[in-house]
């Protein structure tokens, strides 16, 4: 009755025990809000020697259960007074922990955002460093090219005078081109059989004066060697066995520039040596005494390889006439 706030008398006890909801009320009792006065009052009952479950149970099993419930409420009330402040502190600590965890999570989110931005900035920084390195290398290469170009221009500056002189000479020679071509073509056509002295007299004392007499422009210092051959070609001929005298050079010009097949009288075998060195690896050498010289000649014409016919007598095989006349037909297969 004390726990329920009722008068602790037998009539009130009978009334409460007769309530159908009595057990449910005990189960749903608000044990957390028991006052100190009630705890002190039931404590005086609990401390009595005869208020123990064993003694009460000898009288009534139901009373024993009530005794157990009251003693449990008294123990719970005492412990609750100790535990409740700690529970409040725990709740406060949990609340503070939740706040701190929320703050920590917010800080972590900010840290993640800052970290991601740092990564982005680092990538941009690395990219700029790479571009800077490429620009530096490009700058060094450009500077090196400028230096080389400067050296090249400085080196070529001395060639300006020579180029201007060469341009002037070429411009002058263009005006002499008609007469020079006329004399050079006549030389290649008719001068093959003659010796060096006769060639020189015919060119310098007959042809050139006649050309000038007809008012055809012609180089006053005309020479066949300088007009029809490059110095580099002549030097290459000399390396490959052609004698370096002017007569041999003129013969080399007639051989390489003429449109007709050259006939070379070569008692010292200088011409054949020169020809073999010029066409090294490709030249086919035949003799009219060979039984298959026509087959070799036919294959050479077909595949475009040079042929040297040696040991030629005063008369030639009639089968060579179409070749010597260049009466060759080119057939193209469909």
Keywords:
334 residues; two-stranded parallel ribbon; mainly alpha; 14 helices; single chain
Model description:
The protein has 334 residues and is mainly α. The protein has helices spanning 10-17, 22-27, 36-46, 53-59, 61-157, 159-175, 177-190, 196-213, 224-228, 231-239, 246-257, 270-278, 293-303, 321-324, and strands at residues 284-287, 307-310. The protein has a two-stranded parallel sheet with strand order 1-2. Helix 3 crosses helix 5 and helix 4 crosses helix 5.
Give me a quick take on this structure:
With 334 residues, the protein is mainly alpha-helical.
Helix/strand/pairing class, anyone?
A: mainly alpha
- Whole-Å distance between the termini? 131 Å
Kindly report the spatial arrangement of strands forming the biggest sheet. 1-2
| Strand segment tally | 2
Low-confidence stretches: none
In terms of DSSP E residues, the strand content is under 5%
Rg, nearest Å: 65 Å
Number of helices: 14
Q: What overall geometry do the principal axes of the alpha carbons give? A: rod-shaped
Helix content: 55-70%
Order of helices and strands: HHHHHHHHHHHHEHEH
The largest β sheet comes out as: 2 strands, parallel
The overall pLDDT average reads 81
């Amino acid at each position: 009755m004390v726990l329920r706030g009722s008068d602790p008398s037998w009539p009130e006890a009978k009334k409460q025990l007769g309530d159908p909801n009595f057990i449910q009320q005990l189960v749903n009792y608000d044990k957390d809000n028991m006052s100190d006065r009630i705890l002190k009052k039931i404590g005086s009952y609990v401390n009595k020697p005869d208020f123990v479950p064993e003694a009460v149970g000898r009288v009534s099993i139901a009373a024993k259960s009530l005794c157990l419930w009251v003693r449990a409420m008294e123990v719970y009330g005492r412990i609750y007074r100790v535990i409740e402040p700690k529970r409040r502190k725990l709740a406060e600590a949990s609340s503070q922990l939740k706040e701190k965890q929320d703050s920590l999570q917010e800080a972590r989110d900010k840290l993640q955002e800052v970290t991601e931005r740092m990564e982005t900035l680092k990538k941009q920084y690395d990219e700029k460093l790479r571009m800077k390195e490429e620009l530096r290398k490009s700058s060094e290469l450009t500077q090196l090219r400028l230096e080389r170009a400067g050296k090249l221009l400085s080196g070529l500056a001395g060639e300006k005078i020579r180029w201007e002189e060469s341009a002037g000479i070429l411009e002058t020679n263009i005006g002499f081109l008609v007469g020079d071509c006329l004399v050079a073509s006549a030389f290649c056509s008719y001068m093959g059989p003659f010796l060096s002295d006769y060639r020189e007299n015919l060119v310098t004392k007959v042809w050139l004066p006649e050309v000038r007499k007809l008012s055809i422009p012609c180089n006053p210092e005309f020479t066949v060697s300088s007009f029809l051959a490059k110095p580099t070609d002549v030097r290459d001929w000399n390396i490959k066995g052609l004698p370096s005298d002017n007569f041999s050079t003129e013969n080399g010009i007639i051989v390489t520039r003429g449109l007709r097949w050259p006939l070379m009288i070569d008692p010292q075998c200088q011409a054949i040596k020169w020809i073999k060195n010029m066409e090294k690896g490709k030249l086919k050498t035949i003799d009219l005494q060979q039984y298959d010289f026509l087959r070799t000649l036919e294959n050479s014409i077909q595949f475009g390889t040079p042929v040297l016919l040696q040991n030629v007598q005063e008369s030639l095989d009639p089968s060579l006439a179409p070749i010597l006349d260049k009466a060759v037909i080119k057939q193209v297969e469909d």
